[in-house]
Write a structure and sequence with these properties.
It is a single chain. About 45% of the residues lie in helices and about 10% in strands. By secondary structure, the protein is mostly helical. The protein has a single domain, classed as Orthogonal Bundle (Arc Repressor Mutant, subunit A). A two-stranded parallel sheet has the order 1-2. A two-stranded antiparallel ribbon has the order 3-4. A hairpin with a 2-residue loop joins β3 and β4. The termini are far apart.
């Protein structure tokens, strides 16, 4: 994976406004990638300085090991979960 790919993913994640979310697949599409899994891999390595909490699974759930912190950060931005899920139709960012 090259640096340009990392930077495209980082740029998309950085552009998600507070109170909005994208799925890993959305980020992949906007970054010109074919794989949501690749986005997940990049994010696991290099997004500590980005609003990583705004990227979710396509069904609105979060990773179990990040659950509490991610939902807390989203709640602070007005993104509310119901039964542990974010309503993607309501909070998804559309450019």
């Amino acid at each position: 994976m090259d640096e340009e790919t990392f930077e495209r993913v980082r740029a998309v994640v950085a552009s998600i406004p507070p109170g909005r979310v994208l799925s890993y697949g959305d980020v992949a599409e906007l970054a010109g990638l074919r794989s949501a899994r690749l986005v997940g891999r990049i994010m696991s390595e290099d997004t500590a300085d980005l609003p990583w909490h705004r990227v979710l699974r396509s069904n609105g759930t979060v990773a179990d090991h990040l659950r509490h912190r991610q939902l807390e950060l989203l709640r602070a931005e007005g993104v509310l979960a119901q039964d542990g899920k974010i309503a993607m139709r309501h909070y998804r960012w559309t450019r």
